[in-house]
Amino acid sequence: MVVLLVKIFFGKYVEVPLRDYFTPLLSTVLTKSGLASFLTLPQPSFLRLSFLPASMCLLLTACNNDSIPLAENQQLSDSQQQSGYCQTHQLPFSYTVCQIDQKYLLEHSDKLALKLFWRVADDNTNKDVKPIYTFEALKKNLSTNQVLLFAMNAGMYNSEFAPIGYTVMDSKQILSLNLNQGAGNFHLMPNGVFWWDDNGFYITESQVMSNMLQSGTTPKYATQSGPMLVINGKIHPQFNINSVSKKIRNGVGVCEKGMVKFVISDVPVNFYNFAQLFQKELQCDNALFLDGGVASALYAPNIQRQDIKKMGVMIGLVENR
């Protein structure tokens, strides 16, 4: 069924059947605004209606060309419908954030789990096994009693879609910590590691992580990327607010009240503005850049989004039914 997603003042979307409720409203709006005479609406599986309190602007957007809507007959689980892990916001620029309460996640680890995924086989050390590549393949690779609640690309990779930084999956080290100097975003120091164990979720500078590993720290999952976006509440010192290098970017932050927030910009932004989003709007003391450009991707069924891209390591929240 075609639905309208209404973003109301407190930032959540409410699904309204388009056929039953929205057609008369849309017709009235277009007629009175003079748009009806020249505007031909696309035929997406959903429309997004956003109300911005400051200006009361009405924004209508369809699916992006590089993402696909979920099948109309695909049912969301109760937890997806009730929690709405992912939401899209328009200010300070258009972005989508998927967030989880790490305390809740740790207390319900028998039902919910944040994991990294790379190869089809359970043993990711087998080089003969191909990467999973896509969100669609990842969903098919899960057990029949598991549901993917959201997912995102989880770091940088080489031409063979293999990670280039420290990677740990299910307590098995796939790749050692990369402290090499070099070119590119990964080596824009300081870079860092997003990791977690049975006690919590953390973002740690790579040099500090090296010392922790030598002292016996054993992550359950870890992905290294770079650069750091926010370091102990401060924006990366090499970022330039006036930079004209703007791309779609995604990253992760460990934020106030124990929230872990995964963010993808829906418009091109520079590093400074992306980092500032984590620092000021999302209140994250530490945040890490995961990747950008054609590599950034999001699967978020509760907002009807599934980007179609090939990826290396992916990170996803899985529900065990």
Could you outline the blueprint of secondary structure elements for this entry?
Elements: E1 3-7, E2 13-17, H1 18-33, E3 46-51, E4 58-61, H2 78-83, E5 86-89, E6 95-101, H3 102-107, E7 112-117, H4 135-141, E8 146-153, E9 167-169, E10 172-175, E11 192-197, E12 200-205, H5 206-214, E13 221-225, E14 228-231, E15 234-235, E16 249-255, E17 259-265, H6 271-281, E18 284-292, E19 298-300, E20 305-306, E21 314-320
Parallel strand pairs: 1-3
Antiparallel strand pairs: 1-2, 3-4, 5-6, 6-17, 7-21, 8-19, 8-21, 9-10, 9-13, 11-12, 11-13, 14-15, 14-18, 16-17, 16-18, 19-20
Task: Sum up the structure in keywords.
321 residues; alpha+beta; 2 domains; seven-stranded antiparallel sheet; globular; disordered N terminus
Description of the molecule:
The protein is α+β, with helices and mostly antiparallel strands. The chain folds into 2 domains: about 5-60, no CATH class; about 80-320, no CATH class. Helix content is about 15%, strand content about 35%. The protein has 6 helices and 21 strands. The protein has a 7-stranded antiparallel sheet. Strands 7-21-8-19-20 form a 5-stranded antiparallel sheet, covered by helices on one side. A hairpin with a 2-residue loop joins strand 9 (about 165-170) and strand 10 (about 170-175). The longest helix has 16 residues, at about 20-35. The two termini are about 25 Å apart. The model is unreliable at about 1-65 and about 70-80 (pLDDT under 50).
